[in-house]
Amino acid sequence: MKFYHPFIKQFHIKFDLTIWENEKLVWLNNFIIPEEYCRNRIGTVIMEEFCKWLDENKMNSKLLISNCYGTPEDILIKFYSRFNYNIEEKKTKNIYMIRNFTND
Asked: Which terminus of the chain has a lower count of CB atoms within 10 Å, N or C?
């Protein structure tokens, strides 16, 4: 089981996943779009397909919000919230978001 979208290769996007099949969980480790391709809906298209894949495979997804590549945390939270990711209860200073699959 693997997710792939042709934009990832075409636009040199870093999209790195760790799939924990037994736990039905997919960690979105990295999703980095080169600056010249930002704000062109490329990220939205990939996330729409990724979420569809998660739902088809009945997998939840988790990610860590980090501004280490320059995008402010509030922008990242707003972006991922559009795809039904929600902030987990804070137990550390880190911000984790989780998305549960849907049966729609």
From this structure: C
